Amino acid sequence: MVIGGASGHALECLDILSNQPSLEFIEFYDNGIEMPLFLNKYKVIKDQICLQNHFKVDPQFILAVGNPKFRSTFYDRFIKAGGKLVNLFGFNNTVSGSAVYTGADVFNHCFIGSKVFIGKGTLVNTGAQVHHEVEVGEFCEISPRAVILGDAKIGNHTRIGANATVLPKIKIGKNVIIGAGSVITKDVPDNVTVVGVPGRIIKS
C-alpha cells in the first residue's frame, strides 16, 4: 500500500491501519520532503516511476493529507500510475445504513446520518457530525468536531474547519474555506473564505 503524504496526518492514518489486517508492503509518497524514511522505518517515494513499480505489486493507496488540493492531486497521480483508492474507516463511528460514502475516509468517533452522500476522496475527520440528507462533494475536508446539519450541501474541494457548524439547508460552494469555529447561517458562493459567528466572507 502507498500512503499519500508523510507528515502529521499520516501518523493518524497509520494508527487506523495498524488495527486492520497486516499490511506487509507499505511505502509513503511525498515529493515535498527530503527524508528517505518515515518514522525511520518506511521508505518515502517521490516520483511516478517508483509509484508505478509499487502498484505493480500492490495497487492499493490511501490519501494521508487533509488539504483538498493535495488529496485531489495525489489521487490523480496515483490513479495514473495504476493505483486503486482504499478508504479508511476508524473506530467507534455511528453510520446510518442509508448513508453513501464509498471512497471517503471516516476517522474515529464520527456520526453520519440517514441518506447522507459523501463524495470520493473526502475526509471526515475525528468527531465530525454529518446529519441527515447532507451532500458533501469530492475531495473535501470536514475537520475534527465540525457539524453539518440536515440537508446542507457542500461543494467539491471545500474545507470545513474544526468545530465549525453549518446550519440546516445551507448551500456552500466549491473551493470554499470555512474557518475553525465559524457558524454558517446563509449560503456561501464558490471560491471564498468565511470566518466568524455568524460567518462572513473575508476573502475571495
Automatic annotation (TrEMBL):
The keyword Amino-acid biosynthesis applies. One of its GO terms (molecular function) is acyltransferase activity. Keywords: Acyltransferase, Amino-acid biosynthesis, Diaminopimelate biosynthesis, Lysine biosynthesis, Repeat, Transferase. One of its GO terms (biological process) is diaminopimelate biosynthetic process. Substrate binds at residues 7-9, 66. Gene3D superfamilies: 3.40.50.20, Hexapeptide repeat proteins. InterPro entries: AcTrfase_PglD-like (IPR020019), Hexapep (IPR001451), Hexapep_transf_CS (IPR018357), PglD_N (IPR041561), Trans_hexapeptide_repeat (IPR050179), Trimer_LpxA-like_sf (IPR011004). The record marks 133 as: Increases basicity of active site His. The keyword Transmembrane helix does not apply. Pfam families: Hexapep, PglD_N. It comes from the Bacteria. The active site is at 132 (proton acceptor). Residues 2-77 form the PglD N-terminal domain. Belongs to the transferase hexapeptide repeat family. This is Acetyltransferase. It comes from Aquiflexum gelatinilyticum. The lineage of its organism: Bacteria, Pseudomonadati, Bacteroidota, Cytophagia, Cytophagales.
